[in-house]
Design goal:
The complex is a heterodimer of chains A (about 625) and B (about 160). Chain A has about 625 residues and is α+β, with helices and mostly antiparallel strands. Chain A contains 18 helices and 21 strands. Chain B is about 55% helix and about 0% strand. Chain B is built from eight helices and one strand; from the N terminus they run H-H-E-H-H-H-H-H-H. The chains are: A alpha+beta (about 625), B mainly alpha (about 160).
């Protein structure tokens, strides 16, 4: 024992002397004995070492490499592709008598702990690390939560969601805990296309960061109005300690960020894998990582101890509204519009303190909704918000006048899986369809938001006696209807980009369409009208293209078992091409969480051509 | 009475000196107002889909509130108020809420005095959140004044 250590120290002194001229050069110690070298080879193959370096194998034949892209993370120039070289370099570095924040011992505290446990005989130098020690003392935690801000109404693109982690320490309140977030640092000046391309190809850098949790709550819960689910993870104190040490190693370390696969949710799983390599969490996601899917994996592995629901502003407004009579709601709206006069009104003054508190609070929340969601920039609006709070502070009622909100039975990860395969049968043809992501209007509603659809990569192939051909491929198809009422004024909208065949002439067209309008509640569903513009390229049109525009009206009704959707559109053409009409009626019945049966009628008209058909489908989620 | 006047004077002195030592480079600017203008940043259609974060955010492990830990615990309070003006105003108006609870934890108010603290925030709402132009620095100064004038709360000013 003593011998080896002495060798090491001697070797280090020799090297220090030798490299005196080439100051700062990496020293390779030749003094490690053969047994140790053998041990290093074995150790470098261990998963526990590789997960600490974020090694990941893409496919069976591909070479394994580290997903870390920041060079400062590696001590060996070959560190990204050679875990053994990185291990040697790390061991050599730890043998040196270096102290202070820049010492490798201080920059890689998780590696240091891991190697000290596995190679105790090397007796690494225990460095003093003022910065790390102070930071560790400040954030040291006893509980780790996975935080999932779920999607919000009228913003289908939020359905993809985001996940982060929260470490609770000695701060005294969860709002003051540390939020650990992995996000892409995008360039705000990039246009939509650059943004998409860079995002899909890893053109943006991703970093792990740590901020107080209240910043994230303010961002998601108050500004974006997303409900937040907090999942307490079953981690031992030793695992949490390792986690804290490991995130320090990732301080300002760049990972290229890929929107579809190596995104926030994936990265958090690799952080947890680094803490406990036997969990194999990230391995479940080779090609794409959807936040709600990562939660399903955590449930499967029984790593979730406890769930807490944190309702958003919008959810709370709905909850408050449900506890108030119609006249009280009307008064709340009047107070929001003119708190100065209405607070003097007889109606208001005759209310009980509790009802005054209720109306003022709903009125206040509505003014904030206008400012944050509707971006109303009237300078009088903040004054009204403050006046409402000031009035509320004077009501002799301390605390909330509303009953607490119940935790919803169904969470986002309880919803259907996002991959969908569909088998369709028509009178003279069959169709097989596949959808990569995420949720459509007719899909099983549980775990998703009413009126929100975002489908990416939806395609189908049609078979009949004569041919097999591509019938449709939607790169992106977003639809959103949000009901308008006294306290909410959302815009309903749609965007679609893709290829589809018409049932009249069976010709395909490549199209881009977008529209916007309003939706209102009707008989438990939403009736909507949108103005739509569509640019289509197909042989059937003059010059092979057409700019169509016109109304789409529809009715959408969604429930746990049944979904129904009626729609009709009539588009005129820019120029002299005539109008096109399309109408459809669809009904979907949810058999189980993984299966649906559907019935659809379609009708299409173009010039003097007219066609309609009826089809049944079986959809399977997996 | 004398004690209270002394308390106010002390608090005023404390808040000025604190503003001096935790100015722009320290614990946040203290310049946030209750209801800042809604952000008009262009929102990418795919932004939420893809968890992109628009530039200029802090990143790293130590960027958060570092620099605010030194000195009096009230320095951390000032930074917290700067970041949570709206939540604090709305919780103070009802005399209850988790952002008030976090403030209580930061100041270190004992369980026995927490009721007094939340009630004080409610009754002094107009004093602390005077106008829409009131900055977190102003609100912080008023808070210390209000606490200094309260026999049970003055001891937490440190």
């Amino acid at each position: 024992m003593f011998n080896k250590r002495w060798y090491a120290v001697f070797g280090w002194l020799m090297m220090a002397a030798l490299s005196g001229a080439a100051n700062g050069m990496q020293t390779q110690l030749s003094t490690l004995d053969e047994a140790t070298n053998k041990k290093l080879i074995t150790l470098s193959q261990e998963r526990a070492w590789r997960t600490l370096l974020h090694y990941h194998q893409q496919g069976v034949f591909a070479r394994e490499y580290s997903e870390v892209d920041g060079e400062a993370f590696f001590l060996s120039p070959e560190g990204k592709t050679n875990p053994h070289a990185e291990l040697q370099a790390t061991v050599n570095a730890f043998l040196q008598q270096q102290d202070g924040d820049e010492a490798p011992h201080c920059r890689f505290p998780a590696r240091f702990q891991f190697l000290t446990q596995h190679l105790p005989e090397l007796k690494f130098h225990v460095a003093t690390c003022p910065q790390f020690d102070a930071w560790y003392e400040k954030i040291k935690g006893h509980k780790l939560h996975l935080i999932f801000p779920s999607s919000y109404i009228n913003s289908p693109s939020s359905m993809y969601g985001h996940t982060l982690l929260r470490l609770d320490g000695e701060q005294g309140h969860t709002l003051l805990s540390s939020a650990i977030n992995f996000a892409a640092y995008t360039d705000p000046s990039d246009d939509e296309i650059t943004y998409s391309i860079k995002g899909l190809t890893g053109g943006y850098p991703g970093y792990v960061s740590l901020v107080p949790y209240y910043e994230k709550v303010n961002e998601y819960s108050h500004i974006e109005s997303r409900d937040i689910w907090e999942y307490e993870l079953k981690l031992s104190p030793a695992q949490i300690d390792k986690f804290v040490r490991h995130i320090w190693e990732l301080d300002k370390i760049r990972f290229d960020y890929f929107f579809i696969d190596e995104n926030c949710s994936y990265r958090l799983l690799t952080l947890l894998d680094a803490v406990e390599p036997t969990w194999h969490l990230a391995d479940q996601f080779q090609y794409r990582t959807v936040p709600s899917d990562t939660l399903r994996v955590l449930w499967e592995k029984e790593l979730i101890a406890n769930v807490v629901f944190r309702p958003s502003k919008t959810t709370l407004i709905e909850h408050y509204r449900s506890q108030m009579s119609e006249p009280l709601q009307m008064l709340a709206r009047q107070l929001a519009d003119d708190p100065y006069a209405q607070s003097e009104s007889q109606t208001y003054l005759s209310l009980s303190a509790e009802d005054q508190a209720k109306t003022l609070e709903l009125a206040y929340d509505y003014t904030r909704y206008l400012a944050l969601k509707k971006k109303v920039s009237d300078p009088q609006l903040p004054k009204r918000s403050l006046k409402l709070l000031s009035l509320r502070a004077k009501v002799p009622y301390q605390g909330t006048p509303f009953a607490p909100i119940a935790t919803p039975d169904v969470r986002d990860e309880d919803g259907h899986s996002t991959l969908r395969t569909t088998f369709t049968l028509g009178a003279d043809h069959g169709e097989v369809g596949f959808r990569l992501n995420y949720h459509g209007w007719l899909d099983t509603l549980a775990g998703y938001r009413e009126g929100a659809q975002i489908e990416m990569g939806q395609g189908s192939v049609r078979f009949d006696d004569e041919s097999v051909r591509l019938e449709r491929f939607d790169v992106l198809h977003i639809r959103s209807v949000g009901q308008r009422h006294r306290f909410s004024h959302p815009i309903s909208w749609q965007v679609q980009m893709g290829y589809e065949r018409w049932i009249t002439d069976q010709q395909g067209q490549t199209q881009l369409r977008a529209g916007g309008g309003h939706a209102y509640p009707l008989l438990g569903g939403s009736v909507y009208a949108m103005a739509v513009a569509q640019l289509a390229v197909a042989d059937r049109f003059n010059d092979d293209r057409r700019l169509g525009y016109g109304p789409e009206v529809g009715y959408l009704w969604q429930s746990p078992r049944w979904n129904g959707w009626l729609s009709a559109e009539r588009f005129a053409s820019l120029g002299t091409q005539g109008a096109s009409t399309f109408a459809q009626a669809s009904l979907a019945y949810t058999v189980s969480k993984t299966q649906q049966l559907r019935l659809q009628w379609r009708h299409q008209a173009w010039r003097d051509e007219r066609e309609q058909d009826v089809r049944i489908s079986y959809a399977f989620y997996h | 009475m004398k004690k209270i006047i002394l308390g106010v004077a002390l608090a005023a002195a404390a808040s000025t000196s604190m503003a001096a030592s935790y100015g722009p480079a320290g614990c946040g600017l203290g310049s946030h107002v209750v209801f800042p203008n809604a952000s008009s940043l262009p929102e990418h259609v795919l932004a939420a889909t893809t968890n992109g974060t628009s530039g200029n955010q802090t990143f790293g492990m130590t960027s958060g509130t570092s620099g605010c830990d030194a000195g009096s615990p009230m320095a951390g309070v000032q930074n917290y108020m700067d970041q949570n003006m709206e939540q604090l105003a709305s919780d103070s108006a009802r005399g209850q809420g988790e952002s008030l609870q976090a403030l209580i934890a930061l100041i270190g108010v004992d369980a026995a005095d927490q009721g007094e603290f939340t009630q004080t925030m409610q009754t002094n709402f107009d004093k602390i959140f005077m106008a829409t132009e009131t900055t977190s620095g102003d609100a912080f100064a008023s808070l210390t004044e209000v606490m200094a004038a309260n026999e049970k709360l003055v001891k937490y000013l440190g």
